[in-house]
Amino acid sequence: MVARVIPVEPFDLVIFGATGDLARRKILPGLFHRFRAGQMPSDAKIIGSARSEMESAEFRTLVGAAIAEFVAPDLRPQDQLDAFLQRLDYVHIDATGDTGWDALQKILRPDTIRTFYLSVSPALFGAIAERLSTHAIATPQSRIVVEKPFGHDLESARALNRDLLRHFDEAQIYRIDHYLGKETVQNLMALRFANSLFEPLWNATHIDHVQITVAESLGVAGRGGYYDQSGAMRDMVQNHLMQLLCLIAMEPPSKFTPNSVRDEKVKVIEALDPVPLRDIVRGQYRTGRDNQSYFDDVENPDSRTESFIAMKLTVGNWRWANTPFYLRTGKHLRDRVSEIAVIFKDPPHNIFPNKMEGRKGNALIIRLQPDEGITLRTTIKEPGPGGMRLTEVAMDMSFADALGKDLTSQDAYERLVMDVIRGDQTLFMRGDEVEAAWAWADPMIAAWEEAGQRPMLYDPGSSGPEEALMLMHQGGRRWRPIGD
Q1: Residues annotated in a binding site for substrate
Q2: CA-to-CA distance for 179 and 417, rounded, in angstroms?
């Protein structure tokens, strides 16, 4: 199958923090891939900006080295790389001062889509937005892209939104969450709303529970200072896992438009019931054979920040009444896995009473990483003579196998940046969505801080604390094995 590439309109893209890690690893290599695919118009311009003083030629050298490091040799022919680098420019800008803004204004074209990607600390969002406005660089058709974290709590999220809205309309603001750019996440919406097979079953009558797991095999070494101020709740649950939950639990939107989709996601967050402390398990990894403990990685022996969290929550509406959603994420776990498992209820009447022992039941497994795809677990008759013997089989659709490797090789940032240029906000969070998520998370964080309980210790390479297993066992359920 050949992917259809739809070119975007001419644009000027300014990347603030263009010499930083995210720009080098994801944004600039992603733009090169889109250039190679023919999606970027010939007159597109990419302008790097940072505190470092350098010439445009030096910046092109830096970007060329980043692409050589993060893009496979067979995907970066020299002639195409050279052509891409010619579209790059650089301006030294002081984000909190007046240096460089006039120079930036001079190289931007007046009648072209202007996109400003803020790959910088959230503390600089307001200052950059203000200067883009006061220097008349931002136009009515400009877009501004901001990276997470979108605040540290509800109060700071509201302040951040106010800073941006002073200078940009909500329709111009793109709060990027790379999880929503994954092919499988978008396929989840197609699976639900473009097929008549699943939607009639997508409710409490037929679904026993839902598991959402995002596990990492590495610890927080190298970013311990940041992580110890956020923890798994702020770093993962409040944003990434919340987005996955919304797509699973949302009602069908009236139409596939950005605000219709985001309206339904906000309704899910607002319908979440408060989660009591007894339904939350927090953990920290201890020292292992090949790793330091969490305390060592964050250089804080008194830290009470969680590197693992599991919780049981419910959505208080008719569709999901009494259907638990189990969320789990952590560092230094058994494997690197991200998946959503929708576990269906057993048939209302079992006509094979002696044949169903050990059967796990029907399940729809949506894999986000490492191998994107969808698996439907069903029960069939075991082939061969000897009577009715039942067995389980997985109907597996690996996107790489079914659709071709070219259709699955896009990084999420590639897709999302092109969506910004198109002006499509479907896969980006709206301000009220961010604030609703913090309004749900803040009481839980405050409750465990008041309780003063230390997170449970767990072994690196495990599935987390034993208490997380008990969270499921209490309801007669089991977590799916990490890495299964």
Answers
A1: 178, 182, 216, 235, 331
A2: 13
What single letter denotes the amino acid at residue 392?
Answer: E
pTM beyond cutoff 0.70: yes
Q: What is the pLDDT of residues 127-150, one digit of tens each?
A: 999 999 999 999 998 999 999 889
Q: Which of 126, 147, 168 is the last residue of a domain?
A: 147
Catalytic residue positions?
240
pLDDT in tens, 313-362: 999 999 999 999 999 999 999 999 999 999 999 888 777 766 556 566 78
**What per-residue confidence (pLDDT) applies to 403?**
55
Residues 139 and 201 in one domain: no
194 and 279 within one domain: yes
Query: What number is the average pLDDT over the span 81-110?
Result: 94
| Residues 203 and 262 both lie in one domain | yes
Provide mean pLDDT across the span 177-197.
Answer: 85
What does the buried/exposed string (b/e) look like for 63-91 if buried means 16 or more CB atoms within 10 Å of the residue's CB? bbebbeebbeeeebeeeebeebbebbbbb
What's the confidence (pLDDT) of residue 376? Answer: 86
Annotated binding site: 17-24, 51, 148, 178, 182, 216, 235, 331
Domain coverage including residue 97: 11-147
pLDDT band of 1, cuts 50, 70, 90: very low
**Is residue 5 in some structural domain?**
no
Regarding whether 187 and 40 lie in a shared domain, the answer is: no
Count of domains for the chain: 2
> How far is Cα 193 from Cα 198, in angstroms, rounded to an integer?
8
The CATH number of residue 125's host domain is: 3.40.50.720
Is residue 97 domain-shared with residue 232, that is, in the same domain?
Answer: no
User: Is residue 105 situated within a structural domain?
Assistant: yes
State the DSSP string of 368-395: EESS-EEEEEEEEEPSSSSS--EEEEEE
* Positions at the binding site for NADP(+): 17-24, 51, 148
Answer yes or no: are the C-beta atoms of 283 and 309 closer than 8 Å.
yes
